[in-house]
Amino acid sequence: MFLCAYVSGDARGMQAVTAEDASRLDLINIAFGTIRDGLLWYPRTAETKTEIDRLRAVKPELKILLSVGGWGAGGFSAMAKTPEGIAAFTASCMEAVRAMTLDGVDIDWEYPTIGSAGIDHDPADRENFTALLASLREALGPEKMLTIAAGAGKYMVDAIELPKIVPLLNYVSLMTYDMAGAWTPACHHTALYPTGHPDVHNMCVDSTVKVFREAGVPDEKLVIGAAFYSRRWTHIAAADNLGFGEKCYDPEDKESGFWGPGYGTISKMTDPDAPESKGWITVRDDVAHARWLYNPEKEEFLSYDDEESVAEKVRYARDNGLAGVMYWEHGSDPTRKLLKAMSEA
């Protein structure tokens, strides 16, 4: 079983990965390359190669991939419409692999056939995604890695041809975070198990694994995700349930349910000896194996992973024979408490 970090900020993000970090990790996904004019666009290859060499000097067996895409990153659908477009994009990926001595490519198309991120999309994306991955696999050969990041739900299963693409992939990373947000009441966005609360979205790691397993992905090709950041709901009135399951009562607040602070800040808010913790109530949900913070005065609710919950995810992956655990995103926890807890687990 392996531990994988998504590191954002290209070469600059990689500079923050220390030798100790590298010693705890098995894989790094550099986020992100994007698509411009149908080709991979990643402008800092030389600087990134320097950082890759530095980390491999610490741990030669460390695998480093370039992740292409991310939320709101378009260009996939238009590129993949023709064999010529796929071939040109594949060639540009291989050029990056050679230039940075990468161990492979991670495709993070969010999502084929679905335009929720405001990107170009088409019903033909389903078959074209398969053709794209087949082209990349052929070019990369058996020695290099090819992976994808997948949305945590049946919508992703329906959007792609899993039986056809699984043989092409080393593994599928399930983005088991952001499973709740502005479209739901205040609740867990990265729970391990369903909470059972009738008024909330009960998506979780366990249910997502079952959806992909039933769709034909073997356990040894499934990777689950942990969150090094929080989701934040505002205007959550004080109640006996400490905000859980409550809706934002201000419909004009367009930020409620979106991203909250990273664990570097969260760790202070949960430390009773830190001034940042004033007014915050820490809640552990032993059913969902998840955490939240609530501030009655500020009427704010934060859903997050802590050291205990990320370790529980590692144990879940091990107990279920999964390929590993990944997390988004490395720079969100400068304390490195979460990485340490995962590595030790």
Structure, described:
It is a single chain. This protein has 345 residues and is of the alpha/beta class. The chain has one domain: Alpha-Beta Barrel (TIM Barrel). The protein has 12 helices and 14 strands. The chain has helices at 10-15, 19-24, 45-58, 76-79, 83-100, 125-140, 154-159, 162-165, 205-214, 263-269, 307-319, 337-344; strands at 2-8, 27-36, 39-41, 63-69, 104-108, 145-151, 171-175, 222-227, 229-233, 258-262, 281-285, 290-295, 300-304, 324-328. The chain has an 8-stranded parallel beta barrel with strand order 1-2-4-5-6-7-8-14, surrounded by 4 helices. It has a 5-stranded antiparallel sheet with strand order 10-9-13-12-11. Helix 5 (83-100) crosses helix 6. The longest helix is centred in the N-terminal third of the chain and has 18 residues, at 83-100.
* Cα-atom radius of gyration: 20 Å
Q: Do you know the CATH architecture?
A: Alpha-Beta Barrel
Shape: globular
Give me the secondary-structure category. Answer: alpha/beta
Overall residue-averaged pLDDT value: 96
N- and C-termini, Cα separation: 11 Å
Mind telling me the CATH class? Alpha Beta
